Amino acid sequence: MTLHSKTLSSDTWPAFARLVEKHNGIFGGCWCISFHLEPGENKQYAGRYRELKEARVRSGRAHAALVFDGPEAVGWCQFGPTAELPNIRSRKEYDKGLQKLPDWRITCFFIDRERRGQGIATLALREALRQIARAGGGTVEAYPEDYTDEKTSNSFLCSGTLGMFEKTGFQKTRKIAMRRWVVTRKVSPERSLRPRKRSPTRSY
Question: pTM of this prediction?
């Protein structure tokens, strides 16, 4: 197994689409579009999720770190600027304690059913953070589930596990559902993007 990561883009859309089609559109035909839509818009766009997702990808309005094994995508971590992903789980409870919106959100993961349990989600998360660093960094927020020492369906873990995020440097901020947490961390911009310090001007 030789895993590598690429950004979701027009070039990688075919591999992304093949993975989604292999799993019947994932989660009832979601096509990983739900978090892009405002609450209530899902019904309005029913039956057009693939079309909407592809349009967003090709116009640079959908972000994800795709994990590949050879030419085939085997999983991803979706992230994006907050305005790009307005719809999160437990939104009402989240809004109650909101003080400041983050710069970025990580909203969901998907792993090929044949490749689960191989650390692909963790790799996808780390690659998403690298892509955020390349884009300038900032405050990153996610909404994982805490099922420590419990067995549960993978469908409940599409937002990732609390333990995985904590191992990647995230801190618990507040609880917004029985097992759902808001976690945050700061990501520094990639070194090449940081403004250079000017050398002090000497007076003669």
Answer: 0.89
